[in-house]
Amino acid sequence: MQNMECGVRNMKPHFALPPSYLFQLPNSSIPKLSPVSPIRLLSQQLLKHHRQGGNFYFGGQLKIVAEVTNRATVKTVGIRYTDDDWLTWKERDGIWCSHDERSEVDQFLVLTESTLAAGVRIEYALYCRVNESTWWDNNNSANYSAQF
Fold first, then answer.
1. What is the CATH number of the domain that holds 68?
2. Residue 46, beta-bridge partner list
3. Contact 33, 21 (CB under 8 A)
């Protein structure tokens, strides 16, 4: 599976991938844990935006590539993130990039807003929504993080 649109080719994750766990909602307020998850983080990359021709860093963006087991044709994959310890949070849906027929896995590109300030630390989790179910990859309940 080589896809330049997702920016995955020859890209290694910035950290070791933890095992993913399945959190299924909405039937209970307490997520149900299972060792098999349809979604996992493949890579993360910090994109820093500079003024043209200068070194002044004015904003950043987090680029995520997620792998999702193809459980349904129609699904929504995205990120929920915070920069204030979950007092508030934002969600951004990703876009489909590719499909590997041999493994039945889809890849999605997910981007945060592009105005994340220098020095900000965000925590995030990935979601996959199919029909009435939502699955989360939240790094074994520790959440993923990125420092700008």
1. 2.60.40.2440
2. 62
3. yes
